[in-house]
Amino acid sequence: MTWQGWLQIAVFAVLTLAVVRPLGDYIARAIDGTGRLARLGARIETPLYRLAGVDPAQEQGWVAYAMALLWFNLAGVVALYALQRIQHVLPINPQHLDAVDPLLALDTAVSFVSNTSWQSYSGETTLSYLVQMAGITVQSFASAASGIAVGIALIRGFARRSSRTVGNFWVDVTRITLYVLLPICAVVTLFLVWQGVPQTLGAYVDATTLEGAHQVLARGPVASQEVIKLMSGDGGGFFNANSAHPFENPTALSGMIEMLLIFLIGVALTATFGRMIGDRRQGWALLAAMAVMFAAGAAAIYAGEATRTPAFAALHVDQRAGDLQAGGNMEGKEVRFGIGQSALFATVSTASSDGAVDSMHDSYMPMSGFVLLANMMLDEVIVGGPGSGLFGMLLFAIVAVFVAGLMVGRTPEYLGKKIGGNEVKMTMLALLCVPAFILGLTALASVLPGPLASLGNAGPHGFSELLYAYTSAAATNGSAFAGLNANTPFFNLTLAAAMFAGRFLVIVPVLCVAGTLAAKRSVPVSLGTLPTHGAQFVALLVGTVVIVGGLTFFPALALGPIAEHYAMLAGTNY
Amino acid sequence: MLDLAMLVVLGVAFAAAAAYVRGCDALIRTSPQTPEKSQ
């Protein structure tokens, strides 16, 4: 380990904390239409609503809000599927790429609409520029806006008293896109172009290397897709190598900004939450819980990768970090930026729902792989995706106050709302759906000969490849462990099912909780009220997340990374 | 033909999600309400 590695992690943490309150407040003002940009944009909003036949003044109950979200996403998934299937007859396809295979097109369409961005394809050899721009990039905006809208609806559920509505989905999605996502994307896209990310509609170029070899350099409208790819929690790369490709992530500075983009909306929404419910301490408490789990994961992965590996130690290889070598496990790392930045990027990517990668997670030490898996298995509440991280953490907060209420024999309450049977039922429905798909589909793939033939490794590492794929899909992360050929009918269909369930079967009960909470009266704080803004509640919340995640996934993790770790110590590598 | 099958799959998936919305709504409407007072 080096001080530079720890410094990078510390700088990232400070930068992230610095944006929380300003951006969180900005989002709150943008959503309610009181921000400066929102007031200016009213001239754009009004014609859009008129064109779509939407009455912005008419709010929706949770059922209407959920149905609007489903219609919006159904239109998106059909459009993205159709674009892929007819890309060979559409313009802006300078490489003359053929139509995408139907099953792969289905998998990709569900992947990006569900905010997952699992990619069973290489972008530069599969998708035309038009599909990258009008399909993939548009769905990155749409899926991020959908997730944030759900998070905002749940905040309104806590903030409102005796209300039958949770907002207007169409207004929320429009304002989030116009005033939050688009402005940030426009500015940071220019920054990335300055750093060296291509932004062109020109065809790929031929180059001759210094050794005289011939090489085709893929390029395209990368910068404009890169920013929303990271900020939306989608994470699907323009290129197969994702953020390890120098055209997606050219410099150490761009790497730092890209990691910040991944966390940007997720952390800011905790401040939005605090502002909208009128108690900022509640938002800071959620952020503190996220920060504790993130810090533990980042430190564990960096320490695990930067210290010596047993296989090299047995060969008496010098593994100390020095001027001529990074030390530790450099396999699969981003060699330009070293172990510290690679470990930080991997933690940020899996703690959020983004899934962008700048190093190969398959090459991490088994217990680092354990942490990467655990980050996703904890329902992506360690910051998580835009909106989904916040509502995931709020679901765990409901479980935490419910458990605390059981312990002291009081009806649980959170933020002045009594947590009743309906809220607990819907919360458990949302929290159990993801594990059911992860474990069920991993078990199925583990016993069928076809899926097993897709594995690149045997033993516990092969099991980890399967477990990682379904965890990444159902948790809407989208990162890949590598080593698994997922472009088969079985994986395309089952991963699409996992992504769909992990997104929409979670969102629906969350909106239901929002609706039931909004309809409730507020109860005054009393001596028996559990404080939910202090260190005690943060510890209770983190404990709840870790215990629920551990009880659910520990047996599967024991068969994968934990078994591989002990096999490695005994001298067996997979 | 395969395209039609894929679109049917997508349609069925979203129809199931819509039914899930109705199911959740029915579940909370038919559940006994928790009294809103502390014990």
Provide an overview of this structure.
By secondary structure, chain A is an all-alpha fold. In chain A, 65% of the residues lie in helices and 2% in strands. Chain A has 19 helices and four strands. Chain A has helices spanning 3-32, 36-52, 62-85, 102-113, 123-126, 129-159, 169-195, 222-231, 252-277, 280-306, 310-314, 338-351, 366-377, 388-408, 421-447, 449-453, 459-474, 489-518, 535-569, and strands spanning 205-208, 214-217, 413-414, 417-418. In chain A, the strands form two sheets. Chain A has a two-stranded antiparallel ribbon with strand order 1-2. Chain A has a two-stranded antiparallel ribbon with strand order 3-4. In chain A, a hairpin with a 5-residue loop joins strand 1 and strand 2 (214-217). Chain B contains one helix and no strands. Chain B has 39 residues and is mainly α. Chain B has one helix at residues 2-30. The N and C termini of chain B lie far apart (61 Å).
Distance from first to last alpha carbon of chain B:
61 Å
What are the secondary-structure elements of chain A, in order, as H or E? HHHHHHHEEHHHHHHHEEHHHHH
> Looking at the structure, what is the overall shape of chain A?
globular
Question: How much strand content do the residues of chain A show?
Answer: under 5%
Task: Report the C-alpha radius of gyration of chain B, rounded.
Answer: 18 Å
Distance between termini of chain A?
Answer: 25 Å
Can you summarize the main beta sheet of chain A?
Answer: 2 strands, antiparallel
Question: What would you call the structural class of chain A?
Answer: mainly alpha
Tell me the helix content of chain B. Answer: over 70%
- Helical coverage of chain A, percent range: 55-70%
Number of helices of chain B: 1
Tally of alpha and pi helices of chain A: 19
